[in-house]
Amino acid sequence: MMPIECLSPELWSMQWWGEFLKVVGPLIGWILVIVGWLRVTSENDRRQERKEVLECIENLEELLEEIQLLASEYYSKEGGDAECQSIGSTIKTKLKRVSRLCVQLIDYDKAFLSLNDCNVSLRKAVTGGEFESKGRLAYLPNHAQRYEIGNAVEELVSAARSKVPIKPK
Length: 169
Hints:
By secondary structure, the protein is mainly α. About 70% of the residues lie in helices and about 0% in strands. The protein has four helices and no strands. The chain is rod-shaped and about 100 Å long.
């Protein structure tokens, strides 16, 4: 139990509260300023990270579009064609860049882990079958390989876009 002196009216007088607020008042103001600053800073950091993620996804989409066009051009030529080999080399380089962008997105957020499977599907669709085969004949525009590449590209773009939060937390 508390001693009776602690509850005396003198302790709770207006003068006492005035002195207490003179000491604690400035501290409360500084605490509020610091808490507000921390909140604003963390929201800015989240916005900046989201902006970087969206920029990375846009780069990924542009790269995938380039790969799809190059693959279409590649498969429209015969395998022994010199230009075809050059295009194949360019495709492989761009596929490596896609892998790096996927790793970069996974580093931002582990929710992007599904991009690994989509990236493997894309590689299989683009380079599977008769890729770099000198005896390969030119594919017709409606060949199944082209549809597989388009589906793999769309799957990768959808997986990347679905993981981006609509607005910052």
